[in-house]
Amino acid sequence: MEEMEEELKCPVCGSFYREPIILPCSHNLCQACARNILVQTPESESPQSRRASGSAVSDYDYLDLDKMSLYSEADSGYGSYGGFASAPTTPCQKSPNGVRVFPPTAPPPPATLAPPPPPRNACLTCPQCHRSLVLDERGLRGFPRNRLLEGVIDRYQQGRAAALRCQLCEKAPKEAAVMCEQCDVFYCDPCRLRCHPPRGPLAKHRLVPPAQGRVSRRLSPRKISTCTDHELENHSMYCVQCKSPVCYQCLEEGKHSSHEVKALGAMWKLHKSQLSQALNGLSDRAKEAKEFLVQLRNMVQQIQENSVEFEACLVAQCDALIDALNRRKAQLLSRVNKEHEHKLKVVRDQISHCTVKLRQTTGLMEYCLEVIKENDPSGFLQISDALIRRVHLTEDQWGKGTLTPRMTTDFDLNLDNAPLLQSIHQLDFVQMKVPAPPILQLEECCTHNNSATLSWKQPPLSTVQVEGYILELDDGNGGQFREVYVGKETMCTVDGLHFNSTYSARVKAFNKSGVSPYSKTLVLQTSEDTQSEEQTLPFPVPLERSQLRRMSPFSSTLNLQPSFAGRSYFELRSSAHQLSLHSSLQSLNSAGCNFDTQGTPYSQLVDIKKMVAVAWFSFDPSSAHADIIFSNDNLTVTCNSYDDRVVLGKTGFSKGLHYWELSIDRYDNHPDPAFGVARIDVLKDAMLGKDDKAWAMYVDNNRSWFMHNNSHTNRTEGGITKGATVGVLLDLTRRTLTFSINEDQQGPVAFENLEGLFFPAVSLNRNVQVTLHTGLPVPEFYASRSAMP
After folding, report:
1. How much is the pTM?
2. What residue ranges define each of the domains in the chain, with the CATH number in brackets?
3. For 152-168, what is each residue's pLDDT tens digit?
């Protein structure tokens, strides 16, 4: 019952409804509160005058007029209008329930026995839906009294064990001291003295204790609802069109005379039944919500328990790492101490040896000096030769590295802590869940002569990180599966299959935590095309662009796209580059049973006799500079920097003939974009061609240049503007690169002797936006040259 209390409180005063009235918007207000928020409007601003004069109103006003107006043939004498003339100049307040309330323009008149009637053009704004209502000459008496709500409030208050409170206290209601049986209001002593003085007509009212008043209120007969237009008549019928109770007098002379009416009792039972049925559904939702709340509360407790356990595990793991690091630290310090002791020993030994040698040298020098002092020539000559030899020998001994330190003071130990620091920075949580099984995309899987292309993806709601995929294929005879691809790509082409054979394929995902279950098994059938005549076959495809990426570890990359946006089909004609495709797909579950609900063993047969081998690709966000901005499925690029930034295509070419175009969508302030090819490790923050990893043509609005390794060659006339098309033709058979602007070849062959792997490349700044177009045939100027012997 406590949850119902908010339904029983007035949105203006925040207390239980007192004499509630029903507004046309079905919301309720206390009659006193409704009188307090009445606003007087001038005659010129009434909704009737605004409609008559055709004055402009806002879109919101027209919306309200169309959806919420009460002025119709079922008009009850009061209506609504979308605007509220005094609302912009009247400050908006909030009631105790948090609902916006428009206060009156003037303070309310003091309480009297009979409040004056409201002005003719008084307006009332519902504080809940903010719908404005215009009162007629009856004022608030024109709104019906909600006696049903009064009865619910009485039963609710009687069922509460709390003491009865005063109904006139504004803030914190005090405990009621008396109840007036005539006024049907509970008073505390201050409010009784102020609002119900014992004099005049009020002296005849009977005041009883609150408990007695509660009993008398409970035993008093329920007041019967009367008609708002005919106050002496009780409601006896129900108007179906106006959806309101009416009296007999309304049917005879009122506006309901031509409306469909039904018996009040029958409609009462019908609406009670409808409300009960609606409550059954709402009760089920409430029951589910309670169960869901229990589940959420259990989750809160489980999360807290798991958090404590996980934190303890994390602390233990980090402590183990710290202990291991401390042990390694002790080992390294031991090595440093050994090196320290070794250096000291070597230096001390050299000090000792040098000290002895120096003492001997000093003694020899002193002896020779004393010999020189003697005056005996014959005696001197007898020993002079030997002394001279000893002096030279001693001098030679000092000169043989004796005075060079045998040990340096530096420690030749350099701690390589970079890998450990990198490992610490990369220390992260490992995904604890295995991935969900991948989903094979049937619309992108096909066979192609003796090769099969398979495409898959993760389930849309899967959040588990995937590190790679494993594709398995059987041997074509229903034998064991074997791994044919392990990697991160989601599309793979397998070559070397047998013609006219049936293969089963399946894929699974893996991460550090484990391997997912297998996907559903896909059965593919290869076939051999024996027709040699040229055929043209329209191939229906969806209107939207669906780009198929074919990436194979077993053969060169081939990108296929069914059609350009806006076309419902395309024609495939035979040419010098042909492929044959005859595909049929059969979907099986892991047990080998067809999982098509219709029981059809094969999907729709797709038979393409001849197909041109062209490359379809887009720009690669993963290798582009961070300033590059992508759109249109990575086919359109621009930049948010004034400096040149490089973006590469997703597909690299090492052989074959390839042609693509770039249309200039935006070209402002005469920038110099560059177009061409590059290695995967080209500089991304400089103009294309500034290093030796790119071969490009950069252009302005008048001229174009070829550039490689910051070397400019072959300046030609012909620039670009908005709407121009730049063509890039890479012929790795002849190892040449050629450019064109608006289908006009720019100079001779731009670059020759190209070998290796090349990626389409563009460099641009924020003043340029280009769109990539791929899968195009070779231009005529080059096709005619290729046809020459």
Report:
1. 0.33
2. 1-41+117-162 (3.30.40.10), 170-197 (no CATH), 226-259 (no CATH), 268-399 (no CATH), 439-525 (2.60.40.10), 628-786 (2.60.120.920)
3. 887 777 666 456 788 88
